[in-house]
Amino acid sequence: MADATVRLDGPGIQPSPILRPPWLREELCLFLASMVTLYFEVLIIRYVSSEVRVFANLKNLPLVASFFGIGLGMLLGSPKMRFRAVFPAATALLFVLTRFAMPLRLSFGDMSWEFALGSGGLSSRFLSVIRFLVVGLGYSALIIVFFRVLGGYVGQYMKRLPSLRGYGINLSGSLAGMALFSLLAFLHLGPAAWLLLGFLLLAPLVAGDHLTLVVFAVVVCVVATPEPNTFWSPYYRIELTRISPPDGWPRASAYSLVANHVWYQWLADLSPDFLKRYPAAKPNSLMLPYYELPYRIVPRPQNVLILGAGTGNDVAGALRHGAEHVDAVEIDPIIVAMGRQFHPEHPYNSPRVTVYADDARSFLKKATKKYDLIVFGFLDSSTLLSSFSSLRLDNYVYTVESFQNAKALLTGQGTLVLSFATGRSFATDRLYATLESAFGTPPAAYFTGFLVNGVLLIEGGARGVKLPELIDASSELQPRIDSTTLLATDNWPFLYLTDRSIPGPVLVTVALFFLLIWMVLRRADCLAWKTSLPRLHFFFLGAGFLLLETKAVTQLSLLFGGTWIVNSVVIGSFLAMALIANALAGSLRVSAMVMYAILLVLLIADFWFPYSLMNGFSAGAKFLVGGGWVALPALFSGIVFSGSLQRFGRPAEALGVNLFGAVLGGLLENAVMIGGTPILKGLALVMYAAAAATLFRSRSRLAA
To answer: What CATH number does residue 60 fall under?
Structure first.
């Protein structure tokens, strides 16, 4: 197979001499470089998406930029001295700007980027798009430069080792990096600790570069600058600000909670004693009607379920109105802890309350208890499910299937109450139609003044209750609902997309990255079909693997909930499968044709795999069956990859091209906005079929 390739060495792409501390062996250097590369990849995705608003909605852009930079570094090798001066500058800009530059925290004129990036005129929207692209692409460039250096170290160390051995060490290091950052997330540590540990791990690889070491120390000191009342959860950067109480009141009247630089909620004292003494206090007096509404509809319920309980305002409202028991579900354990400690009414300390730190959709599937009232809190997460996916944490909460799960938990006369700040928009139409589809009857609907552009939807036994002080929205919404109204479903859960399309700014970003991939592959002679089939084989394998991983994240999120633990488990299990495959490929002689046949059969069978049957399984059984099934194709694709790597003989080059394929897979993931989540299976199938075709075509040409 080596005869069928073209070497990458040429003008401007000469490998640099490897830099290695004399006290470190090549194997340990490769393990360390691989570990620190994946560690920083996860760190940057987590950190930058919390601080820079563009990436809160385009989280797979940092992922794509990371893969691009690593792939570029592996192809080009360890950077030359003139480029190494760029690395500390990029590092300083990347992390210091992230910490301090307020203009990077772009906020658009409407509730999310899917709402056409603002509600102003054409010039206003155009300006928003330009700002969006400048920040997004500018930061992506810094990420590419940063990972080009790290990828260069990985590539250079791999060149010094046999292919399978080097690849096995690379996978082991990557798995260790993923596990290490997951541990820090579990401990709820923040960016200062993340960067300190990351730079300490990176220091041996740049030990001779004193400027870079100084920059590392300065960056850690800058990022460690105290931020009073700031906390880091697995999902958000959280700021909590105490509102001074009126004279004579012994505790705080309220706290303001800001998540990822966007106001999230108040923790407010709405107790009768406080409001009787201070009836005009704000924001308390403005919030009271909103939290009273569910109990005007269902007075004194016995059992209440609150989804998206936050810091406890909804729970406090249920307790004030005599609920016998409240089950409160909130995905973020730090927000729950803040509610326990700071909420003025301390609702989570009541013996009548049980708190579940869980994903709302996951809880709905597991619960068997019946409720008189189910309240959907304001679950607008503004945070993506995973760096691999365009889906948000809350996407699967507002689907037909989710509402059907909730309906199954209602008592005979039970009621579901849902409120959202969608106003008179297509998103309100979609919520209304989705509830109607799930319950078989149109919900009662009201426009409220308690939330900006708020809408209140009611289903179940108390649907006929009248709220004369609110604007009845049913007569306005019902005529707009017909067979053409797009419903939110588990297959297409995009509440905020006007239709099945990819927003313009995303298309521009995708097009630019396609251009970059084409330029690099052309330079590397990967587009000459007759001479570069093996490289294209690795390229398509990378695209298929990334799509397979994305499919696993979305599928397991429906089984276990969209928590950060699921993401870590998926990435870790795929790396482990690749490591097992590498060991098998080194000890067994297996047919690539057989492996591809099994892989393609598994991908086709997944279209009919009965995931819904596992909802009744225990958590352990779900993990073994569901997790094992979605990760199984990675084993066979890994065997093919390792076998091809052994024959190709140039691991850094192969992995570099493979990562550019992963970039393609990350860009293609955006197609879910058109075709829904099932399209991921189809795209993965196409990429693996293309990989098989290039492999067998190259073999037949060599045989000829």
So the answer is: 1.20.1250
